[in-house]
Amino acid sequence: MATGAGPLRGVRVVELAGIGPGPHAAMVLADLGADVVRIDRPSGGLRLGDPDRPDPTLRGRRRVAADLKDPAGRETVLRLVERADVLIEGYRPGVAERLGVGPDACHARNPRLVYGRITGYGQDGPLVQQAGHDINYVSLTGALHAIGRPDDRPVLPLNLVGDFGGGSMLLLVGVLAALWEARSSGRGQVVDAAMVDGASLLMQMTWAFYGQGEWADTRGANLLDGGVPYYDTYACADGRHVAVGPLEPRFYAQLLAGLGLDPADLPAQDDPAGFPTLRARFTDAFATRTRDEWAALFDDTEACVTPVLALGEVADHPHLKARGTVVAPDGGPQAAPAPRFSRTPALLDRPPSAAGQHTREALVDWGIADVDGLIACGAASQV
Q1: Which segments of the chain does DSSP mark as H helices, in order?
Q2: Which of 10, 188, 197, 250 is 20 to 30 Å from 182 by CA-CA measure?
Q3: Cβ distance 174 to 191 under 8 Å?
Q4: 133 is catalytic
Q5: Residue 180 CB partners (closer than 8 Å, separation 6+)
Q6: For 111-142, what is each residue's pLDDT tens digit?
């Protein structure tokens, strides 16, 4: 059995192997104590990164290798479904049905099952079978258009907005909501988590500003997109950067004090006509010291100035180090589980493993009979 003590202890999850937001959602469920079994192809399937290095996104669960194209392998997965609370899959629409593990087949075995589906375009609509990736889904929501400098191309926000913010996290919200509802109704349902829907939902405050006439539909012209000089990044003497964000007047006053600028010699904070002057003065001031010198100067203030850290610096930042925000249980850095719980903390109790490493253990634990026979006939495999 899984040994985690998190708030989802006792919840059983079947994850049909994929890449990106589906595995990320399964990781979070495992972090929070769910017993997650990942179903891999016998070959191990597709993965990103160095195949010889463990993928920390695959932490926390056991991995079973089963051939869904083999009737015995498919039946094994359906028997796991009978014992599960949740299933997560990220195939193109229709693929799970063709493999015999779609919602109808699974609900016939387990009417209480929450069937979570994560795709870019969703389960219906004109683009339902269109290929795409995070950049494509985000481009349709207005989010990509809104990020960047006014005279340059849109800036890619990694794959945080589509895959993970609008994908994995939306799937998790849906799965947990459906689990809660199933407690009273006794019935499961399908959760259709589309990244275009989730990324759009993340844009809700921007939509609000836009609908109120407070958001110009162009990059770098608004309060939170670098359009104002006091909410932006600035280069320092060593070529590194600081993030500056004192929106409130009292915080802004502390920024000016730290920079040694007299407000009487400057345009008003919110006067658009004075923004070029303010930006130039801030640019010149920040260029006189290194990033870390500025970070130290503003450390005990409320000026909302912080260093822009590279990945290799994050774990050693005093605040993140004190909280254990980045951990390295297996030698490589990775994000610690979040959020934090006062009574039922998440535990990193199972490192990432190989496809098929837990086939025998997990199937026996979930009550599947004749595991040796399944392995012998090739419907499942153990490494």
Answers
A1: 21-31, 71-82, 95-99, 103-109, 134-139, 143-146, 169-185, 195-202, 204-211, 249-259, 275-286, 291-298, 311-314, 318-323, 359-365, 371-377
A2: 197
A3: yes
A4: yes
A5: none
A6: 999 999 999 999 999 999 999 999 999 999 99
| Token pair in block for residue 81 | 């479904």
Q: How far apart (Å, rounded) are the C-alpha atoms in residues 74 and 379?
A: 8
Q: Which of 35, 163, 192, 232 is catalytic?
A: 163
> How many CB atoms within 10 Å of residue 87?
29
pLDDT number for residue 4: 53
Burial (CB < 10 A; 0-12, 13-18, 19+), residue 369, is: exposed
Say if CB 334 and CB 327 are below 8 A apart.
Answer: yes
Measured CA angle at 67 (ends 64, 72), to 5 deg: 100
Residue in 133, 238, 270, 299 annotated catalytic:
133
pLDDT, position 43: 77
Collect the ranges in the chain with pLDDT lower than 70.
1-4, 44-52
Buried b (16+ CB within 10 A) or exposed e, 339-356: eeeeeeebbbbbebbebb
pLDDT digits (tens, 9 = 90+) for 1-47: 444 589 999 999 999 999 999 999 999 999 999 999 999 998 766 66
Q: Does residue 197 contact residue 166 with C-beta atoms inside 8 Å?
A: yes
